[in-house]
Amino acid sequence: MHKLLIATNNPGKVEELQDLLRDTNITLVTPAQIGLDLEVIEDGQTYQENATKKAVAFAQASNLISLADDSGLEVDALDGAPGLYSARYGSTNGAKLSDAGRRQYLLSNLQGQPRPWMARFRATIAIATPNHQLSRSIPLGQITHGTCEGEIIPEERGTGGFGYDPIFLLTELGKTMAELSMDEKNRLSHRARAVIKAKPMLKLLYSG
Question: pTM of the full predicted structure?
């Protein structure tokens, strides 16, 4: 049986990745399902470094092929912040803010800045194997990227998604990421675009 470990403890990411990969002939497992309690320090200088670090760590700990994601929100008016630090934006003394707290902290930092507050989500997907080798000629830590452009709005809209989704407006649709259905989000989001690019690599890997 082909198994792929979704290398994250974020329930929102787990749900999205399970939906994005449901059409593959691969059995998806989560760290909780295999009793793996692992936290990886995300101290890389790029999304790619963080995603690769997580994929390799989970693959080695589980002895399973692992797919990891690192993503962030980049706001032009804040010179690209929060970026790599999106998940811990506004944290003090190691205490992380909630998703709602991070959204409010972001909006407070944007006050006084002229609108529109243009922004983008970026995602990087990394795939690693326990023995550091992928089959055939695929290199270790195969990487794909995805981007979704939009803008930050000052009021929250929608109840779906997680993180910054309620204040990230897809300008052309006139909807926030949190107002999209799962099917819509998984056609348009940064993570969806990165996963779509990764599927051929997974197909080749599991055919070996």
Answer: 0.89
